Amino acid sequence: MDFKPASHFYTLTSRIGVGVFYLLIQNSSSSLETTTTLIDATTCCHISYPEVITRPKTLTASLHHEIGLSIGDFAFILSPNSVQISILYLSLLSLDVTVSASNPTSSKSEVSHQIELSKPVIAFATSGIAHNLPSLLHRTIILNSLEFESMITNSNTMVILYFSRTTSKSKGVELSYRNFISSLARA
Q1: DSSP letters along the chain, please?
Q2: pLDDT in tens, 143-178
């Protein structure tokens, strides 16, 4: 009998439900511009409504274009709750990546067993517990690192457009995924 990881797990919520929720918050009133949407009680880190919209989009572009995550992949998360986890979930689910989350206090053997069951291609963990993870197809991304922070805040170049002037050489202008998505959203 072939092992099919998804058949061994209980469905806690549908991706459609999460997607509909995310679309609703994206299309909500602009009066939320200054509203704090997520607060981490441990670190007091807070994320505003506009950041809850832009950060998952930016992370999604990074994970898809730089890492290579795509529909049907499995991702493993080994981390305590934080505001970054919310951003990560929205991003992974928008890519239609199945998320397998583990208790951060799990032993190395428990984590190995969970990895064996879910067969993820990538993992996300905090620096203090990442040593419990084996090597995966793509890699492990450390959630409390500058790299991850950059993945959720920096825009990635999607295309370079050139324009020329009659008296000089052509010039290149970078168009980021964020710029492109913003332009589409305004149309």
Answers
A1: ----GGGGS---S-HHHHHHHHHHHHTS-GGGTT-EEEE-TTT--EEEHHHHHHHHHHHHHIIIIII---TT-EEEEE----HHHHHHHHHHHHTTPEEEEE-TT--HHHHHHHHHHH--SEEEE-TTTGGGS---SSEEEETTSHHHHHHHHS--EEEEEEEEETTEEEEEEEEEHHHHHHHHHH-
A2: 999 889 889 887 566 667 777 766 677 766 666 655
Question: Which residue type sits at 68?
Answer: G
Domain ranges of the chain: 5-154, 156-187
Q: Which residue do the tokens 């409504």 mark?
A: 49
CATH top-level class of 5-154: alpha beta
C-beta separation of 78 from 102 below 8 A: yes
Q: Model-level pTM?
A: 0.68
List residues bridging with 98 in a β-sheet. Answer: 74
